[in-house]
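Anyone up for a design puzzle?
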């Protein structure tokens, strides 16, 4: 069976972006043609991580985001963007913020419930927007609550009390939102990782909440602990805790600017899957090796005395 795709704006995509786009289009095609049971499984599984790696190394990040069907549709759900791997491959934090703003807006408009959008807005420290949404729905109780200064100990404790109450009711997304309202990023991340089992959401929240830094320290600690088999600070490596997916390990090492390990981790083991999977390792390893050589050449040229 062959699939033909009309790729609008393909001239603006580089090789990496085109590889990801084709995989995304195939994924979307299957979602619309499979029976409901298999469709749900495919949505949960998402696009293969090897394609996340291609998108991560593309210089056409903005174009790729605009080609995601949920973004084009205008009402993206987080589950759809997670399936496309944006938590892994969107590198520019301003681009990520614009993307999550669309998710937040759509989340509110779906049921006119400000709590549905609270986690996304509060990850961007937009408490005033959440307050405005409650006000627009004439929810006096929540409007009054969100008008308080949560830097004050009294109201910080009130937000934490709500967070733990929602956690007990297994309303995990809303619980994480109230942890952020209280300024407790650590607890919000723990809810995402341990209760929601959503590492992409945890990484996105960490990067947005700590966007004033060049690289979020919480984001780095997530990669160390969940992908690279280390403690949060990068110490105490344990090979038994190393993530099994070499593409995710490669992305994590690249974020850490450890480009040698980003390549080496793809070559450390012989894939035991099928020939197609072996081909994915080979193609991507060759690309990274070429990029590494070019990087060294450019660094040598720019550092050479004139």
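Challenge accepted. My sequence:
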């Amino acid at each position: 069976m062959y699939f033909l795709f009309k790729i609008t704006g393909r001239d603006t995509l580089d090789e990496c972006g085109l590889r990801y786009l084709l995989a995304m289009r195939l994924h979307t095609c299957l979602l619309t043609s499979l029976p409901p049971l298999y469709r749900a499984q495919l949505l949960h599984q998402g696009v293969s991580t090897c394609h996340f790696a291609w998108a991560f190394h593309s210089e056409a990040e903005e174009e790729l985001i605009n080609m995601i069907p949920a973004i084009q549709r205008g009402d993206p759900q987080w589950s759809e963007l997670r399936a496309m791997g944006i938590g892994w491959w969107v590198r520019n934090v301003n681009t990520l913020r614009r993307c999550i703003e669309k998710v937040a807006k759509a989340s509110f408009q779906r049921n006119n419930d400000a709590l549905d959008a609270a986690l996304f807005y509060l990850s961007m420290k937009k408490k005033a927007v959440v307050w405005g949404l409650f006000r627009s729905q004439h929810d006096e109780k929540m409007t009054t609550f969100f008008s308080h200064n949560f830097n004050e100990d009294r109201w910080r404790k009130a937000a934490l009390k709500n967070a733990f109450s929602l956690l007990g009711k297994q309303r995990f997304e809303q619980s994480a939102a109230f942890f952020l309202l209280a300024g407790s990023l650590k607890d919000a991340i723990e809810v995402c990782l341990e209760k929601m089992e959503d590492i992409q959401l945890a990484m996105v929240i960490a990067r947005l909440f700590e966007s004033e830094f060049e690289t979020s320290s919480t984001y780095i600690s997530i990669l160390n602990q969940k992908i690279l088999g280390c403690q949060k600070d990068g110490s105490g490596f344990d090979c038994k805790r190393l993530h099994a997916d070499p593409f995710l390990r490669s992305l994590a090492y690249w974020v850490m600017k450890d480009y040698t390990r980003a390549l080496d981790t793809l070559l450390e083991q012989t894939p035991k899957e099928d020939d197609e999977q072996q081909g994915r390792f080979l193609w991507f390893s060759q690309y990274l090796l070429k990029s590494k050589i070019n990087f060294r050449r450019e660094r040598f040229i720019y550092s050479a005395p004139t």
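A detail worth pointing out: Residues 36 and 134 are 36 Å apart (CA to CA).
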